[in-house]
Amino acid sequence: MRKALKESLITSMRAKDKHAVSTLRLILAALKDRDIAARTRDNAEEVSDAEIVSMLQTMIKQRRESIVMFDKGDRPELAAKEAQEIVIIEGFLPTQLSDDDLEGAVTAVMADLSATSLKDMGRVMGELRKRHAGQMDFGKAGSIAKKALS
Question: Full-prediction pTM beyond 0.85?
Answer without folding.
Answer: no
